[in-house]
Write a structure and sequence with these properties.
The protein is mainly beta. The protein is built from 6 helices and 28 strands. It has a 16-stranded parallel sheet that branches. It has a 10-stranded parallel sheet with strand order 4-7-10-13-15-17-19-21-23-26. The protein starts with a strand and ends with a helix. It is found in: Secreted, Cell wall. One of its GO terms (molecular function) is polygalacturonase activity. It holds the Pfam family Glyco_hydro_28. It comes from Oryza sativa subsp. indica (Rice).
């Protein structure tokens, strides 16, 4: 297998390819044989190189047994999309930078994407400053990500660390994720997801969703997130769904999560909306069978937020060993735990007490099986 080294001429070839307009396709054809990445792949900053925009920068499609590993770096140089000026330059240079920024296409590429592939391994590499998502798996089965570092500033918009969609049998472990959006985003069609021994922060935590946007069906099952450290993230472990959706999130376990200065460590939000206004709708993606075990640490706004649908209440929520204490920060207003149409069991006393959780099952709520709904 070929490899890229900091001292080898192949890296210079890659850099030349990266400055051409056909950046994605040419690079991927050449990278298709690479097993070890030990150098640095740098994205172009010229708007001309991106043409009208690309959804993916580096993409691997319909492969079996592909492995990308090593100590190398993929640098998306997303600053060209995030900012309008470079404070290190003088005024004239800033003006030129602004002009160049305005020419950048509105479509921002994911740095590294795998589509329709089996038995994928990504190990050891670093991905930094992607303009959008850093690492994405779509319609893949048998994925292993470990010892990977992903990093971008906390104010870089929509820069998810790892994004999963329609993918099964995924393991992510011993990985460091710091970004401007979800450290890990788990979307519809995902099942058998195992995330453990991960550091997350800054970022928006580890999220399932948002699911069911534009009245679509969304199904996620058998997700385990355990032995995770979160530092100064917006949320901790979160499930978020749009009103009007259909489907089910079922069998989710969040265990041994250490949070430090996290705004809201535990969230289920069936009224998720990232637009100015969202219309009220009756149907919802159902949420059932969510376990919270040993979620401990400090929060800065609210310990728990369970906002569930009237028509499809959350059921089977269980809490064991939840201990969340406030951090007194002057510009934050602390709130008590919040619950709406959330049903389940408290197996041990919680700190603070979550008295708003309805014990037992919702009356008259006959939740259909995953097979029936999905």
């Amino acid at each position: 297998m070929a490899s890229i080294s900091r001292m080898e001429t192949p890296q210079l070839r890659v850099l030349r390819l990266l400055n051409r307009a056909d950046v994605a396709t040419t690079l991927v054809k050449w990278l298709g044989r690479i097993r070890t990445l030990d150098g640095t792949i740098v994205a172009p900053t010229s708007a001309k190189a991106w043409d009208s925009g690309l959804l993916q920068w580096i993409e691997f499609t319909k492969l079996n047994g592909v492995s990308i590993q090593g100590n190398g770096i993929i640098n998306g140089r997303g600053q060209q999309w995030w900012t309008y000026s470079d404070t290190d330059d003088d005024e004239n240079d800033d003006t030129q930078y602004d002009v160049e920024f305005e020419r950048m296409p509105q479509v921002k590429p994911t740095a590294l994407r795998f589509y329709g592939s089996f038995n994928v391994v990504v190990a050891g590499i670093t991905i930094v400053n992607s303009s959008q998502c850093h690492l994405k798996f779509d319609s893949c089965q048998g994925v292993m990500v470990h010892d990977v570092t992903i990093s971008s500033p906390e104010n870089s918009l929509n820069t998810d660390g790892i994004h999963l969609q329609n993918s099964k049998d995924v393991s992510i472990h011993h990985t460091n994720l710091a970004c401007g959006d979800d450290c890990v985003s788990i979307q519809t069609g995902c099942s058998n997801i195992n995330i453990h021994n991960v550091n997350c922060g800054p970022g928006h935590g580890i999220s399932i969703g948002g699911l069911g946007r534009d009245n679509t069906k969304a199904c996620v099952s058998n997700v385990t997130v355990r032995d995770v450290n979160m530092f100064r993230t917006m949320t901790g472990v979160r499930i978020k769904t749009w009103q009007g959706g259909l489907g089910l999130v079922q069998d989710v376990r969040f265990s041994n999560i250490q949070v430090s200065e996290v705004q809201t460590p535990i969230i289920i939000d069936q009224f998720y909306c990232d637009e100015r206004t969202c219309s009220n709708q009756t149907s919802a993606v159902a949420v059932s069978g969510v376990q919270y075990e040993n979620i401990r640490g400090t929060f800065t706004i609210k310990p728990v937020h369970f906002a569930c649908s009237d028509s499809s209440p959350c059921s089977g929520i269980t809490l064991t060993g939840v201990q969340l204490r406030p951090v007194q920060i002057s510009h934050y207003r602390l709130n008590n735990p919040f619950c709406w149409q959330a049903f389940g069991e408290l197996y041990t006393p919680t700190v603070p007490p979550i008295a708003c959780l309805h014990l037992g099952k919702p009356a008259g709520n006959n939740l259909q099986s995953y097979h029936d709904l999905c």
